[in-house]
Design goal:
The structure holds two protein chains of two kinds. By secondary structure, chain A is an alpha+beta fold. In chain A, about 40% of the residues lie in helices and about 20% in strands. In chain A, strands 1-2-3-4-5-6 form a six-stranded mixed beta sheet, sandwiched between helices. In chain A, a hairpin with a 2-residue loop joins strand 2 and strand 3. Chain A is globular. Chain B is mainly alpha-helical. Chain B contains three helices and one strand. The chains are: A alpha+beta, B mainly alpha. At the A-B interface, helix 1, strand 4, helix 4 and helix 5 of A face helix 1, helix 2, helix 3 and strand 1 of B. Strand 4 of chain A pairs antiparallel with strand 1 of chain B.
Chain lengths: ~180, ~55
């Protein structure tokens, strides 16, 4: 099977995860219906991110265009997420499944400006999207790589279920959550 | 184990994958609802994970 065929398969899964995440979010936060949109990281998202005004101590150490292009070139089994409120970009995330499909990790995630309509929802939305993708590719774990070293944020990630060390490499600076597939 | 890992890497049945995902979404609704109610700290903006600016 050639790479383009496989790549197209993962594209379908990725888009399905975005659509399901949006649908689930709207079910619990109906005020955002007709306002929220979850997309891949398209050109418009890249240009919008350039316009964010973020204080120096919360700025990112990567270039979103470079990372997105690299992931599109090298990682078919990836998740991409741009979170929109109307025309305003509120968050970005990119991650990928490990080679053995044991883990889907969020490698880069950035929230928008300090005050934005979806502040406080970016991490749970990104987490849910990554988890749905993980289930689709039969990975047992999701992870957040290099979580920011802020005690309040670390406690927040733990409250969202990311409360384990990397089970495959405990020295890795990451927080992991086991995907539980028999709930409710 | 190596063969299992290789098989997982190269093969994905899209319909089954989406079916699994939708089933999980249905079963995990309450978890997601709870996650949305967890109060994010005021510092939840800008870089949330990933390498810091040098």
């Amino acid at each position: 099977m050639n790479n383009q065929v496989i790549s197209n398969k993962y594209q379908k899964i990725r888009l399905a995860a975005l659509a399901q995440t949006q649908s689930d979010f709207e079910q619990f936060e109906p005020d955002f219906i007709d306002h929220i949109d979850l997309t891949e990281i398209n050109e418009y998202a890249l240009r919008s991110q350039d316009e964010w005004e973020i204080p120096v101590n919360r700025q990112i150490g990567w270039d979103w265009r470079q990372v997105r292009n690299q992931y599109r070139r090298d990682h078919m089994a990836r998740v991409e997420l741009a979170v929109w409120y109307d025309e305003e970009l509120c968050g970005l995330m990119i991650g990928k499944a490990s080679d053995g499909k044991l883990v889907v990790k969020i490698n880069y995630i950035q929230g928008g400006q300090a005050e934005n309509p979806l502040k406080g929802f970016i991490v749970p939305i990104a987490s849910h999207c990554a988890e749905l993708f993980a289930v689709a590719v039969e990975a047992d774990w999701i992870g957040i790589q290099d979580p920011i070293d802020d005690e309040d944020l670390l406690n927040y990630y733990r409250a969202l279920g990311f409360d384990e060390r990397d089970p495959f490499d405990p020295r890795n600076n990451a927080l992991f959550k086991r995907v539980v597939t028999d709930e409710d | 184990m190596l063969n299992v890992a290789t098989n997982k890497t190269n093969d994905v049945n899209v319909d089954k994958a989406i079916e699994r995902m939708q089933a999980h979404a249905s079963k995990s609704k309450s978890s997601f609802a709870k996650a949305l109610k967890v109060k994010a700290p005021s510092s939840a903006y800008g870089r949330l994970a990933g390498p810091a600016k040098a």
